[in-house]
Amino acid sequence: MSRKKKFKFPQNPPKPSKSYDPSSSGKVWLYGVHAVMAALKNKKRTFEQLIFLQKTAPELTLLLEKKCPHVSIAPTLVDEDVFQKVLPKDVVHQGIALLTSPISSLSLEDILDQYPQGPVTLLCLDQVTDPQNVGAILRSAAAFGIQGLGLTERHSPQITGTLAKAASGALEITPLLLLGNLAQSLELLKKHGFWCLGLDENADQTLSEANLPERVVFVLGSEGEGLRRLSREKCDLLLKIPTSPLFPTLNVSTSAAICLYENHRQKNLPLSSKLQEKS
What we know:
- With 279 residues, the protein is an alpha/beta fold.
- It has 2 domains: 28-100, CATH 3.30.1330.30; 108-267, SPOUT methyltransferase, trefoil knot domain (Alpha/beta knot, 3-Layer(aba) Sandwich), CATH 3.40.1280.10.
- Helix content is 34%, strand content 19%.
- The chain has helices spanning 33-41, 57-67, 80-86, 108-114, 131-143, 161-167, 182-191, 229-234, 252-267, 271-278; strands spanning 28-31, 47-53, 76-78, 96-100, 120-126, 148-152, 176-179, 195-199, 205-206, 215-221, 237-240.
- Helix 1 packs across helix 6, helix 5 crosses helix 6 (161-167) and helix 5 (131-143) packs parallel to helix 9 (252-267).
- The two termini are 39 Å apart.
């Protein structure tokens, strides 16, 4: 029986000197237990430094040994002032941070080459700029196992620690697609058998009324403006989520979760049917 790996903390380690500046070196500081542990499991990332807050080191060390037994990087114990130096102000870091290479994104062509035919679900965001919303959408995307989340190259949040923390580990699971031009991307997807379905609260048809196709891309706009005109025109169909007329607008991350749930529901047997089959 193999022993669990015990991490040895460096003797008199140098304190991290790099401040929080995601554009300066290509490296990025991630923080928060779920975001860091998920990143440490990602074999596509390279790690430069892992830091633990002194007072939280015992429980974090046990968690690291349990969740990431094969990781080679040893944590460095630091004081709170180091976290204040390398992370944005007032973030909830939970006593752990990781300096790592950025997550790699895919092109739309990569996805089309990987899935030339058959069922595929994508979700594209039309200039959603809030990293908290994009992080929450990534969690739903990972939960429902979609094949990619498309972000516009302009007017989208940087893929930094703030977004990773909001995604709670999901950033390492769902591929990100950077789209130079959303309208052109939707046209390309349609040529490869995708149906482009836009979410619009003024649409005539509801999401549940639509017979969702195997190859589908849901297109969601920003909270303030919704879908831009050209994006709306490129959609094959506009759908709405029925809500109370007293409060018709949903947060974009909530709308994304509902879309992906309905897509999953339509394409899978209900849980009750599966239970009946087993009995």
